[in-house]
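User: I've been trying to design a sequence by hand for this structure and keep getting stuck. Would you show me what you'd pick, starting by listing the structure so we're on the same page?

Assistant: Good idea, let's start from the same input. This is the structure you sent:
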């Protein structure tokens, strides 16, 4: 498995520190977030990221912008700004040769037939503008939120196929979604993580791993919550993509998660 971590979720702001910490743990990549480029302009300049990659042999993935943005917005000005910001982020992703760019599929605040149709059309229009990127784009599952536009693995797979893109499977999101009132009853009665794995299949090129209480997106260390990762040992060991520990709680929580996931790797069923 190719293991890395999200420096932003861990609360690390400077790219030098992010790489040093990853190197100390023997990790293979760091996930950066583009939003830092806007509000922490000196945190991760592309030139420095390239230098650190060359010096360490480490890779990077990039979480495309999501703060205050909505690529499926019903409001054209908001959607335009969101698309422009994402295109800038994709240029940055190309400049640092990111392995993939993780993207959120948008929100809908009026969950009614007409706004829903418009929002999906808006999402499709936005995604079409990103298709020329040389960086693989991974659509993330976001069905945990009531305002999330794309809910359930089947709809996510349909959109992914429509644009020839890929997926980031966030296991914490999948578990929470199964307990939401709008969830497909079949999803709630099954292993929701496995449902996403089976439906998205080879489209999954990136994983976000953390744990939670099945109610809130807490981003706890991987051993601390309701998700039993031993159930997915074979999948994780055989996964050829990148596995990002999207864990809050600082460096100790990341270290704890690294040890936990590596222990799973060491023991095969």
């Amino acid at each position: 498995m190719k293991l890395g971590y999200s420096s932003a979720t861990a609360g690390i702001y400077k790219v030098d520190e992010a790489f040093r910490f990853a190197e100390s743990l023997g990790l293979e990549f760091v996930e950066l977030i583009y939003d830092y480029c806007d509000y922490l302009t000196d945190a991760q300049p592309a030139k420095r990221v390239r230098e650190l990659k060359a010096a360490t042999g480490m890779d990077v993935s990039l979480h495309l912008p999501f703060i205050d943005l909505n690529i499926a917005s019903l409001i054209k000005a908001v959607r335009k700004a969101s698309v422009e910001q994402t295109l800038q982020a994709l240029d940055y992703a190309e400049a640092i040769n990111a392995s993939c760019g993780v993207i959120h599929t948008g929100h809908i605040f009026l969950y009614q037939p007409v706004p829903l149709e418009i929002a999906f059309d808006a999402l499709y229009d936005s995604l079409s503008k990103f298709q020329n990127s040389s960086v693989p784009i991974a659509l993330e599952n976001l069905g945990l939120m009531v305002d999330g536009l794309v809910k359930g693995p089947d709809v996510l797979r349909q959109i992914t196929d429509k644009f020839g893109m890929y997926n980031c499977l966030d296991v914490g999101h999948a578990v929470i979604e199964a307990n939401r009132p709008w969830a497909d009853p079949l999803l709630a009665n099954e292993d929701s993580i496995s449902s996403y794995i089976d439906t998205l299949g080879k489209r999954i090129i990136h994983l976000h791993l953390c744990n939670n209480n099945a109610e809130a997106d807490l981003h706890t260390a991987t051993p601390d919550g309701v998700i039993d990762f031993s159930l997915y040992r074979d999948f994780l060991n055989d996964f050829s993509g990148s596995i990002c520990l999207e864990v809050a709680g600082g460096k100790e929580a990341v270290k704890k998660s690294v040890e936990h996931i590596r222990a799973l790797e060491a023991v095969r069923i």
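That's my pick for every position. To get oriented when you compare it with your attempt: The chain has one domain: 2-266. The mean pLDDT is 95.
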